[in-house]
Amino acid sequence: MDETDDRTYSWDDRMDDFISILNHNVKVSSDSNKPVSNKIFLNVSLLSSLVFLFFVKHENNDNDIFVQIKDRAKNIISKEIIETEFNDWIRNFQPIKRLLLEYLVIQENDIRITHITNLVEKCNLFFEEILKSEKLMHLIPFTATFAIVHFTVLRESLKLQTPNFGISEFKEIISRYKTHFINTFHQFFTWRTDQITTKTSISNDLNSTSLFTFQANGEVKDIIGNKTVNYFAKSSNDQIFTKVFDLIKLRMFTEAKADFIKMVLHIFSLANFIHDYEPSYNISWPLSISSFWVGPYGTDTFPDGSHNFDDNSKIFYNISEDESGVITKIKLRCGEIIDHIQAFYEDGRVGKKIGDGGGTEHTILNLDKSLRYIVAVKLMFGVGLLGTIEFIFNDGSTTTKFGKLHQLHQITGSLQIGPFGEHNKFRLSGVMGGGGKIKTKNDYGENVAHIAFKFQHVDSI
């Protein structure tokens, strides 16, 4: 970290800088060629680098990485948990922090071995205490951060060849962390879904003297993320209204899950810590936690705020989903808007076509598992449909912007999905969506109305 840098040295900054050093040291992928923000750390032990980055006071930010979790997790965990449980665990961690800081000034090798042996014992016991917590699933951001500390201490123990600790013991601890995260992730996602509440009022008064007999009002609210969508409709039918309602809640949940995964994504690379000692060792994470959808997005589900759904009568809600995998190419047609989009997968599998309009055809070719893949997508909506789309690749390059909304007032929402993590460790692996039509007297065919994307950790396939 350059001490002259005036930015806030955040939780993400510290974690990304450390992972850059780890990847450079173990040379696990092409990402190891990514520049490290301060190359001085490449000349000291990995544990010393971690202590400097995570705990040593910096000019513009004197909070260590565990204190910063409280702010970083505010849209993931309930405020009550952050202010109680997190404070308790930060306080309980202080003896380990003191040992870590002391390690920086120890020069004699025999004293270092004794010190690391003590740290290994303290970290192992601390992990055991975490597993006993009644709030275990809420502690995931804390535990994921501690896992990086714990594994760096264990790696230093391997390097110093301390007594009674070797590869087999390290792999056993990796296995325990993997089991812990798999179990608690599923519990957390169930809890997180319940934090998105819905309220509706739907009526169909046949005796009403009003021109419109159907009236609907509703609200979807993400309690943790503090997001709300309010909606009103008087010309849609109740079946469509219910579908919109479900899609908004789904969209809010997938966004929450993506934010959660972005914070804990480094746990998927825990095997990197023993790469130098057993390069073939890997961890197979279930796709249910190492991949996630984002969306579906459409003018009726996005953005947050107030919506009038009287304009959705041309949306079909014929949403289809691909079986995820390695995408090898994407075809689309577009003119003023996106007419259709279709993904193609390994082994010749063809994804479902979203939309069925005309327009000029474009093809994104030469996508694969590890060298060239999509890490982010930019979307712009207008005229009730998907107006433009642009793809970003793992090397930072982009496609052209497909589609073009020619009138500014037609743009109803825009966003970028991804990349998730500085090291582009998630690839686009699936597409789902549904069609709709422009509200005109002429029939221009079915275009893209809803779209969602699945991202998968690059080590998962």
Automatic annotation (TrEMBL):
- Gene3D superfamilies membership: Jacalin-like lectin domain (2.100.10.30), Pesticidal crystal protein, N-terminal domain (1.20.190.10)
Q: Name one GO molecular function term.
A: toxin activity
Question: What InterPro entries does UniProt report for this protein, alphabetically?
Answer: Jacalin-like_lectin_dom_sf (IPR036404), Pest_crys_N_sf (IPR036716)
Database matches in SUPFAM superfamilies: delta-Endotoxin (insectocide), N-terminal domain, Mannose-binding lectins
Entry superkingdom: Eukaryota
- The protein here is known as Jacalin-type lectin domain-containing protein
List the taxonomic lineage. Answer: Eukaryota, Fungi, Fungi incertae sedis, Mucoromycota, Glomeromycotina
